[in-house]
């Protein structure tokens, strides 16, 4: 991944905050997303959710499944289906890498963020992730709580 690509410079539309709790995040990829006109207008409104979505491979392509982009209210009969699968635009090497990691290593492709980049294009930040077990989640929460408590103690002393 190129330097600085993980940082989204544009407007963030939807953020999958649960993903960092439920998964160990590995490598990230920036993907374009194929949208209709009403979907773009609805995304600009900022009401999309990707909390329960995932990316799936079909016929050598990656699709975003179960992402909710609400209907654009001003477009009456030319509207889109809110939860339709959407094609993601990636390079062939990236698609092959994602598909092989999912099939061989049992990983999952999770969308972390939907945003508009500096050029105004809708992008999805995907991550190769491995699911956490319950004890891993507790360990993460315990270390986060300790770091917070340690910060409070140092702040009170100094």
Automatic annotation (TrEMBL):
Subcellular localization: Cytoplasm
Keyword set includes Signal: no
Phosphoprotein as UniProt keyword: no
Gene Ontology MF, one: RNA binding
InterPro entries: SmpB, SsrA-bd_prot, SsrA-bd_prot_CS
Keywords, in A-Z order: Cytoplasm, RNA-binding
Annotated function: Required for rescue of stalled ribosomes mediated by trans-translation. Binds to transfer-messenger RNA (tmRNA), required for stable association of tmRNA with ribosomes. tmRNA and SmpB together mimic tRNA shape, replacing the anticodon stem-loop with SmpB. tmRNA is encoded by the ssrA gene; the 2 termini fold to resemble tRNA(Ala) and it encodes a 'tag peptide', a short internal open reading frame. During trans-translation Ala-aminoacylated tmRNA acts like a tRNA, entering the A-site of stalled ribosomes, displacing the stalled mRNA.
NCBIfam families: PRK05422.1, smpB
Name of the protein this chain belongs to: SsrA-binding protein
Species whose genome carries this gene: Blastochloris tepida
Phylogenetic classification of the source organism: Bacteria, Pseudomonadati, Pseudomonadota, Alphaproteobacteria, Hyphomicrobiales
This protein's encoding gene: smpB
């Amino acid at each position: 991944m190129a330097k600085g690509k993980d940082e989204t410079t544009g407007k963030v539309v939807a953020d999958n905050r649960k993903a960092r709790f439920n998964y160990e995040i590995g490598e990230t990829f920036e993907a374009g997303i194929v949208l209709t006109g009403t979907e773009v207008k609805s995304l600009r409104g900022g009401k999309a959710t990707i909390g329960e979505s995932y990316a799936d491979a079909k016929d050598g392509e990656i699709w975003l499944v179960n992402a909710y982009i609400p209907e654009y209210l001003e477009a009456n009969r030319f509207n889109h289906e809110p939860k339709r699968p959407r094609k993601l635009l990636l390079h062939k090497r990236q698609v092959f890498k994602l598909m092989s990691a999912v099939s061989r290593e049992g990983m999952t492709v999770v969308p972390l963020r939907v945003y508009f980049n500096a050029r105004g294009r809708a992008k999805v930040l995907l991550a190769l992730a491995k699911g956490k077990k319950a004890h891993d989640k507790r360990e993460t929460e315990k270390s986060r709580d300790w770091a917070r408590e340690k910060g409070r103690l140092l702040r009170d002393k100094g």
